Amino acid sequence: MDHTTAMTWNPAHIRMLGFAACAGLLFGCTSATPPLPQPTNPQVTISGTSLDRVKKALVAEMSKRKFHVAKDGGQTLAFEQPASKAALESLPSRAVRGGNPVERVTFTIASEKDDIQVSADVTILRKLAAMEGETEINQGPEGQSVQAILDQIASQVGTAKPIKKEN
């Protein structure tokens, strides 16, 4: 019995094996359904209200939660407070090393036809001398809390509309 013939590969078999692997990979890629796009940050669309009413409600609600207004730039409203222990524990240690970590919530308010679109960006900010470092935390508990605030404000000052899914 000659063992060398059992170890010899036929080039046709190699090509067939390669073709089958590529076809299987291609089939797997085309049959997978893409996930639906989800908003990455808290947001709400409110109808039947004004920009001023929304801003006043945001200031009142954030003040209740011990945030202070850090910036009021027309359609941008930023609030800050010292970062909570819970917010810091959810981050990698290098993200909050040094400085005095601050939780910042920046609301962007835009008027679109008869609606007011409000979106928020929730970050932990490290202030070190003249430098600032930001870590986004929109997907954490703080982002969920800000979404609850937006939903509450929407019901207080107008009518919340479903968020349009972006492609």
At a glance:
The chain is an alpha+beta fold and 167 residues long.
Can you walk me through this structure?
With 167 residues, this protein is α+β, with helices and mostly antiparallel strands. The protein has a single domain (43-161), classed as Alpha-D-Glucose-1,6-Bisphosphate, Chain A, domain 4, CATH 3.30.530. Helix content is 34%, strand content 31%. Strands 1, 2, 3, 4, 5, 6 and 7 form a 7-stranded antiparallel beta sheet that branches. Helix 2 (51-64) crosses helix 4. The longest helix is centred in the first third of the chain and has 21 residues, at 11-31. The chain starts with 10 loop residues before the first helix and ends in a 6-residue tail after the last strand. Mean pLDDT is 79; it is low at 31-37.
| Beta-strand segment tally | 7
> If you consult CATH, what is the topology?
Alpha-D-Glucose-1,6-Bisphosphate, Chain A, domain 4
Unreliable runs: 31-37
The SSE string, one letter per element, is HEHEEHEEEHE
Taking the sheet with the most strands, its summary is: 7 strands, antiparallel
Cα distance spanning the termini: 64 Å
